[in-house]
Amino acid sequence: MIDYSSLDQPFLLQFIFYPRKDFAPCPKNAFDLSVAVGDNVSISCRFYTGNSEWPWILFFHGNGEVVSDYDEISPFYHQKKINLVVADYRGYGASSGTPTLTDLVKDAHVVFKHVREELSGRNLRKDLWVMGRSLGSIAALELASQHQQKMKGLIIESGFPSVVRIMFHLGMPAQVMGREKIDQECLERIKKIFLPSLIIHGGKDSLVPLENAKAIYQHLGTREKRLLIIPSATHNDIMLVGFKDYFNTIQQFIGKTDRTSKS
């Protein structure tokens, strides 16, 4: 696991995390799971169930978002016959604790394990596609590099290969020890990912510039990969602007990798 301790300083973390404590009651077609990740610290996950036979995406959301924001988005996945489980981070939504990069990465492994166990315990499909949006790409890439035998595929939306690049882009102070080492380790980790992968990015994203998506795509070890660029989309309107291509491509990707794994 990449050592993020040099970045887990309060004056740096303010550039990375923008936690919200908003939390809405669980919809009728969903259920919540609280995952213990440390002493008196838990992560909130919400499972949006459309059909027990549909595949599942474990989704790590973007910054400034919380699990219950996806109450209104999950029906679009259900229209494509995909179930969705969304995970929060420490300090977000109903989750406790304070977010750090180290904990974000460590917690992702615990969440992944418990989500699979919960699906199995409910006699639902436990094979997972993992998706990360923006900040969530850190967790998704980490899991893809460590649990390839337990994952069906990887989806990165508006993501980045290294948090160091985004921190500098957003004005992070320059005097950070080991930043080049962290960046290189992130790229090396991506090279070891041989899962089917889909990268989605907005062509006019100024928060996480398109070059980040291209870097992920270029460094992925897998040959089964696709880069979908939605030309007129920015960071926060990509789903709306590219609605048809966005969801159709995800559906096609899930369907193709699901059939391939069964053949």
Overall description:
The protein has helices spanning 10-13, 74-79, 101-121, 136-146, 163-169, 179-191, 210-219, 238-241, 243-262, and strands at residues 30-38, 41-48, 56-60, 83-87, 128-133, 151-157, 197-202, 225-230. It contains nine helices and eight strands. It is 37% helix and 20% strand. It is globular. Strands 1-2-4-3-5-6-7-8 form an eight-stranded mixed β-sheet, with helices on both faces. The protein has a single domain, classed as Rossmann fold, CATH 3.40.50.1820.
In short:
By secondary structure, this protein is of the alpha/beta class. Helices cover 37% and strands 20% of the residues.
Principal-axes geometry comes out as globular
CATH C-level name:
Alpha Beta
> If helices are DSSP runs of H or I spanning 4 or more residues, what is the number of helices?
9
- Give the CATH architecture: 3-Layer(aba) Sandwich
Hey, roughly how much beta strand do the residues contain? 15-25%
Distance between the termini: 33 Å
- Unreliable runs, pLDDT <50, ≥5 residues? none
Helix content: 25-40%
The oligomeric status of these chains comes to single chain
- Radius of gyration, CA atoms, in whole angstroms: 17 Å
